[in-house]
Structure formats: C-alpha cells, structure tokens
Amino acid sequence: MEPELIGRFDPEWLLPWWTKTSQRRLSWVTKLSRICDVVRTEFGLPANFAFHVKNRTAHFAAARQVAMYLVRELCGWPFPRIGRSFKRDHTTVIHSCNVVARRMRQNPQFARLVERLMAECR
Fold first, then answer.
1. How would you class 93 by CB atoms within 10 Å of its CB: exposed for 0-12, middle for 13-18, buried for 19 or more?
2. Cα separation of 1 and 103, whole Å?
3. What is the C-alpha to C-alpha distance for residues 58 and 10, in angstroms, rounded to an integer?
C-alpha cells in the first residue's frame, strides 16, 4: 500500500533556507581565502602557495599555524572543520592554536602582528 500524499511538494519553501545557507557558506569561503591571502602577504609566501601542502619548513609551518588561529578566532569554526580546510587532523589545529596563543603571551611583538592581521581580515 502506497502512502498518500497530502498535497503537492512545493520547493519554494526551501528557497529562503537555501539562500541563507549558501550565503553563509559563501561568506565562510570568502573569509577563509581572505585570511590565507593576508597571511601569505605578511609572511612573504608566493601567491600560489597552498596551505594544505605537506611542507614542514619552520617558516611555512608558522604561517599555517597563524592562519589556522585566525580562522578559529574570526570564523569560530570547530577544529575538525578547520582541519579539513587545511587538510590536517583536528589535533594539529588544536596544537597550532595553542602554539600561537602561547607565543602571543610570550612575545608582545608577535601578539601585535597577529592582532594586526586579525584587524586586516575583518
């Protein structure tokens, strides 16, 4: 026995939800790319540098850590989502955020740099 439909399906009711969700998703992607661009410029990285590349050079790792920290602070994304964006594990993101926060407490000049980058990305 087939279930009886109570009226026709109207996809119009999905439109307000879909536009809000897609606009929010688009703003997240825009914010992430803006943060990566600002960090690339500040750290003197090439324009085609991808943060998800497996490069462990200290300079690249520090830039990646700062970018992860900024995404966490400005976007409020959970650690697993940031990890997926940078193709890293969520524990790596937690470590990166802790490293940047500790370095900001210990080095006022670095703290000013991160705060300036944060203001640029807003």
1. buried
2. 66
3. 55
pLDDT along the chain (122 residues), means of 10: 52 51 60 93 92 89 96 94 94 97 97 96 88
Closest CA relative to residue 27, chosen from 60, 69, 68, 74: 74
Give the phi and the psi of residue 93 in degrees, each rounded to 5.
Answer: -65, -45
DSSP secondary structure, 60-99, as one string: HHHHHHHHHHHHHHHH---HHHHHHHHTS-HHHHHHHHHH
- Give the CATH number of domain 50-122; options: 3.40.50.300, 3.40.50.150, 2.170.130.30, 1.10.1750.10: 1.10.1750.10
d(CA 85, CA 80): 9
Give the domain ranges of the chain. 50-122
